Amino acid sequence: MGTIGLTHQTRVLDKGYVEYRGHTGSDRDVDVAARVSHYNRAFEKEEAKRKPEERTRLLRFLRRKRHTTPYERPKLVVRLYAPVFVARQLFRHRTGTFQEQSLRYEISGGDFYIPDASRVSKRPPNVKQGSGAAMDPAKAEEIRNLILAHSEAGQRLYARLVTREEDGGEFELAPELGRMVLPQNLYVLWEMDFNLHNWFHLLGLRMKPDAQWETRQYAEAIAAYIKAFFPECYRAFVDYQLEARTMSRMEVSILRRILLSEGIAANLPNLLQTYGGGELSEMSESERKDFIALLAPMGGT
């Protein structure tokens, strides 16, 4: 990503962006916050001698075991410029603070999101959300033109309603009422101030493949800033949350029975050495033990 200074922007969609507005803390702060539990007179002296690999090991342990409080110390603030429907999805995450530009006070600039033809998709069959197959190119272009015309018509009506009489307007309607005619693809501006734990919760949902594509683009831009400022925390998030999968009690029981019936369960430690690959080297000793315990048949399952 290169050097990141205040107001650094990452372009998103056709006219949007995510802008870095500041952060506090680092990977080290998560480690220090966790170790306060063991505070004693030698704490500061021991802290000064702490090796990077010791910090990394603890960060990963905390994420794996869902000890989230230390991850609440660092923060990241970003400014977003995104369509209304993206904003409303991100506003669902009520665990941070939001400051939004108000169209009660400011006049809309009239930026609208017009998706690329390749993004124009059909409704998916048999599901209630998401996008299906790509639209026929000619129809996709027709749809884009219809969306553009509707957007421009909404902006013209809005301007006609709210323009002051001294500027040639005929109604001078209050902007807080005039804004109701603007469509959902209008770009709006707001800032988000979240701690690292709550950012990871948001990203864990909005970076999934089944998240709306437009919202996912913003989530990935935010994630890039987090990765730049908190690299070890971000790596732990990817390994133990974003790309991890949980299993229900029923699924674990079924898997254990399969392993037992195939004679695999008794040889799990050796098989782990044989098939562990590069992933095995990334796992701590306690992770390996937990993994074997997860798959080992227990008590009649």
* Total beta strand runs: 5
In percent terms, what proportion of residues is strand? 5-15%
The mean pLDDT is 90
Separation of the first and last Cα atoms? 49 Å
Short summary:
48% of the residues lie in helices and 12% in strands. It is of the alpha+beta class.
Q: Tags for this entry?
A:
301 residues; alpha+beta; Gyrase A, domain 2; 3 domains; five-stranded antiparallel β-sheet; 13 helices; 5 strands
What do these coordinates show?
A five-stranded antiparallel β-sheet has the order 1-2-3-5-4. Helix 1 packs across helix 3 (52-64), helix 7 packs across helix 9 and helix 8 (213-229) packs across helix 9. It folds into three domains: 9-98 and 187-242, Gyrase A, domain 2, CATH 3.30.1360.170; 114-181; 249-295, no CATH class. It has helices spanning 27-35, 43-48, 52-64, 84-90, 137-162, 175-178, 196-206, 213-229, 231-242, 249-261, 268-275, 277-282, 285-295; strands at residues 9-12, 16-24, 75-83, 97-100, 187-195. Strand 1 and strand 2 form a beta hairpin. With 301 residues, it is of the alpha+beta class. Helix content is 48%, strand content 12%.
Any chance you could write out the topology, listing elements then pairs?
Elements: E1 9-12, E2 16-24, H1 27-35, H2 43-48, H3 52-64, E3 75-83, H4 84-90, E4 97-100, H5 137-162, H6 175-178, E5 187-195, H7 196-206, H8 213-229, H9 231-242, H10 249-261, H11 268-275, H12 277-282, H13 285-295
Antiparallel strand pairs: 1-2, 2-3, 3-5, 4-5
